[in-house]
Amino acid sequence: MTASPILAVLDDATLVARVRAGDPDALGALYWRHASDLLRTAYAITLTTEDAEEVVQDVFAGLGAMLSGYEERGQLLSWLKRIAARRALSILRARGRMRDDVKDDRSVRPATTAEAIAVRDALGALPPDLRIVVVLREIEGYSHEEIGELLGIRRGTSEVRLHRALKRLRALLEDRL
């Protein structure tokens, strides 16, 4: 299935209005435009392709209903990533995987350089509570306030976790690079 060429050129605001009006083709156009970004976000948090794909499916399956809460103050992609991050965290919690026992399946975004492989491996070696803060802050660009809201922690806790994570990443990468 591909997005309609006509719908593919419409901006997100127009597509959102059409989805709200019940247009399934507009939903498909949003999927084709944003699914890969959401998949990368979800994968960085869950570290499994299966869970990342489930997150993206859940986001788009419920998007019609969720759009009632979308106020169109920021970019749609940022809002969708926030939903994907929350869903990914929910999956981790439900499966009891906020611990260190998850292994990266590496099939969503294979690294292509030695440096990228080392960074991916070092990030995957972090405990989930630290890795998630790094992903949300350094990769996705969330503020510490937003991270605190997503994770149910204080802003200061997010800052401390980021500091600890970056310190561990430096140590891991010094050994590999």
Structure description:
This protein has 177 residues and is mostly helical. The chain folds into two domains: 1-104, Rna Polymerase Sigma Factor, Chain: A (Orthogonal Bundle), CATH 1.10.1740.10; 111-177, Winged helix-like DNA-binding domain superfamily/Winged helix DNA-binding domain (Arc Repressor Mutant, subunit A, Orthogonal Bundle). It is 71% helix and 0% strand. The protein is elongated and about 55 Å long.
In a nutshell, what does this entry contain?
With about 180 residues, the chain is mainly α. It contains ten helices and no strands.
Q: Can you tag this structure with a few keywords?
A:
Rna Polymerase Sigma Factor, Chain: A, Arc Repressor Mutant, subunit A, 10 helices, 2 domains, 177 residues, mainly alpha, 71% helix
The helix-strand sequence is: HHHHHHHHHH
Query: What is the rounded Rg?
Result: 17 Å
| Poorly predicted spans | 99-104
Quickly give the CATH architecture of the largest domain: Orthogonal Bundle
β content, as a range? under 5%
How many angstroms separate the termini?
Answer: 42 Å
CATH superfamily of the largest domain: RNA polymerase sigma factor, region 2, helix turn helix motif
Secondary-structure topology with pairs:
Blueprint: H1 5-8, H2 12-20, H3 24-46, H4 49-61, H5 63-66, H6 76-94, H7 114-125, H8 128-139, H9 144-151, H10 155-176
